[in-house]
Design brief:
This protein has helices spanning 32-43, 109-136, 145-148, and strands at residues 2-5, 8-12, 28-29, 47-52, 56-60, 67-71, 74-80, 83-91, 139-143. It has a single domain (2-148), classed as Trna Endonuclease, Chain: A, domain 1. Strand 8 (83-91), helix 2 and strand 9 (139-143) form a beta-alpha-beta unit. The chain has 152 residues and is of the alpha+beta class. The protein is 29% helix and 32% strand. The strands form three sheets. Strands 4-7-8-9 form a four-stranded mixed beta sheet.
């Protein structure tokens, strides 16, 4: 089932290699980028298992100093050479991984504030994820359109 809302694609992904997907329900993709990553995980013979939004990490918001829940996009176990590696993977537009541009831009003030807010929240989430990964033996990756759409 695919729905188009607000200019992006979302729906339920039905894994072909069901034994590799470790979630309870079929995963929901919220963008064509997530759909592409799901398909890569499902069809890549080196991916041993994967999940979507099953890993929840507490983080402290820089705005209200309260603990919130961060649902990481994906967890993936991959065979790399003779080793098994575990990753938490967040899929984001590259512009959300960098501080917002505020000088010499023609953005509305509300847009600048929203971008600053989003960036600060993401930084808090990702710092919590890195600490979690260090404790649990995972690596944390942020995948952008540059990695998803670059052919090698």
């Amino acid at each position: 089932m695919r729905k188009r809302r607000h200019g992006y694609r979302q729906g339920v992904y039905k894994p072909i290699n069901r034994d590799k997907y470790k979630g309870i329900k079929n995963p929901m993709y919220r963008s064509s980028w997530e759909l592409k990553f799901f398909s890569w995980c499902d069809n890549n013979p080196n991916v041993l298992e994967w999940t979507s939004e099953n890993t929840i990490i507490p983080y402290i918001s820089p705005f209200d100093s309260k603990v919130h829940r961060y649902y990481v996009d994906n967890a993936v176990v991959i065979r790399e050479g003779g080793e098994i590696s575990k990753y938490l993977v967040e899929i984001k537009p590259e512009k959300q991984t960098k501080p917002p541009v505020v000088k010499n831009c023609r953005k509305k003030q509300s847009t600048i504030l929203y971008e600053k807010y989003t960036y600060a929240i993401n930084q808090s989430k990702w710092e919590a994820a890195r600490k979690w990964c260090k404790k649990k033996g995972y690596k944390f990756l942020i995948i952008t359109e540059n990695e998803l759409f670059t052919r090698k």
